[in-house]
């Protein structure tokens, strides 16, 4: 029979090594849990530590809900593209760089979006989407705080190009 401490995600060998290398308290060990979805996994780890049995097993649905909560919090509970208020039930996760084009499924590539904007964007690259819809790019730069800098740089470039095109159209 396994002891409960062996099932604790904080008892993994890599976390134990980090803790022995300088982390002095339980909180430091908890912060040592790393991965591509660090904060979402950390919230699940905290929930597992509070669970009565402490199993530490999570379904993919638990991880998806944690990622959605994290993306919603990072976007200020608003759609990253149109800035409409969102609730956890109505929010969808949008991959800024689409997975079909090599985007990762991690928090730096995920934003909260309403269903309409998520369908409107589809599998377009951010540059293409923001060039066609500059209003979405402006809101994206304001709302999505934790997205990778390169994605925000591309959004700013697309907005300025779209603005230059409209200025040329008015001048002609």
Summary?
By secondary structure, the protein is mainly α.
Structural class: mainly alpha
Find the CATH topology of the largest domain. DNA Binding (I), subunit A
Give the fraction of residues assigned to helices: 40-55%
Q: Give the biggest beta sheet.
A: 2 strands, antiparallel
Taken from the alpha-carbon principal axes, the silhouette is elongated
Output the CATH class name of the largest domain. Answer: Mainly Alpha
Mean pLDDT: 70
Structural domains: how many:
2
Alpha carbon gap, first and last residue:
79 Å
User: Using DSSP, what is the number of strands?
Assistant: 2
Order of helices and strands: HHHHHEEHHHH
> Which segments are poorly predicted (pLDDT under 50) over 5 or more consecutive residues?
17-21, 23-37
CA gyration radius, whole angstroms:
20 Å
Organism: Gemmatimonas aurantiaca
Region (Disordered): 26-61
Pfam families: HNH_5
Keywords: Endonuclease, Hydrolase, Nuclease
Question: How would you describe this structure to a colleague?
Answer:
The protein has 172 residues and is mainly alpha-helical. The chain folds into two domains: 4-50, no CATH class; 63-171, DNA Binding (I), subunit A (Orthogonal Bundle). The protein is 54% helix and 5% strand. It has nine helices and two strands. The chain has helices at 4-7, 13-20, 26-31, 38-50, 60-74, 115-121, 126-132, 134-143, 149-171, and strands spanning 92-95, 110-113. The protein has a two-stranded antiparallel ribbon with strand order 1-2. Helix 4 (38-50) crosses helix 5 (60-74), helix 7 runs parallel beside helix 9 (149-171) and helix 8 (134-143) runs antiparallel to helix 9 (149-171). The longest helix has 23 residues, at 149-171. The chain is elongated and about 60 Å long. The chain starts with a helix and ends with a helix. InterPro entries: HNH_5, HNH_nuc, NA-targeting_endonuclease. It holds the Pfam family HNH_5. Residues 67-119 form the HNH nuclease domain. Residues 26-61 are annotated as: Disordered. GO terms for molecular function: endonuclease activity.
């Amino acid at each position: 029979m396994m002891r409960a401490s062996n099932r604790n995600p904080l008892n993994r060998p890599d976390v134990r090594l980090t803790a022995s290398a300088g982390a002095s308290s339980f909180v430091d060990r908890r912060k040592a849990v790393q991965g591509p979805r660090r904060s979402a996994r950390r919230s699940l780890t905290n929930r597992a530590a509070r669970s009565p049995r402490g199993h530490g097993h999570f379904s993919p649905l638990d991880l998806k809900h944690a990622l959605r909560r994290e993306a919603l919090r990072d976007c200020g509970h608003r759609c990253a593209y149109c800035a409409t208020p969102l609730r956890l039930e109505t929010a969808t996760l949008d991959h800024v760089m689409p997975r079909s084009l090599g985007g990762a499924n991690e928090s730096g590539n995920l934003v909260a979006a309403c269903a309409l904007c998520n369908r409107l964007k589809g599998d377009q690259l951010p540059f293409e989407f923001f060039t066609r819809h500059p209003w979405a790019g402006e809101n994206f730069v304001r709302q999505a705080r934790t997205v990778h800098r390169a994605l925000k740089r591309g959004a700013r470039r697309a907005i300025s190009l779209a603005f230059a095109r409209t200025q040329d159209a008015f001048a002609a």
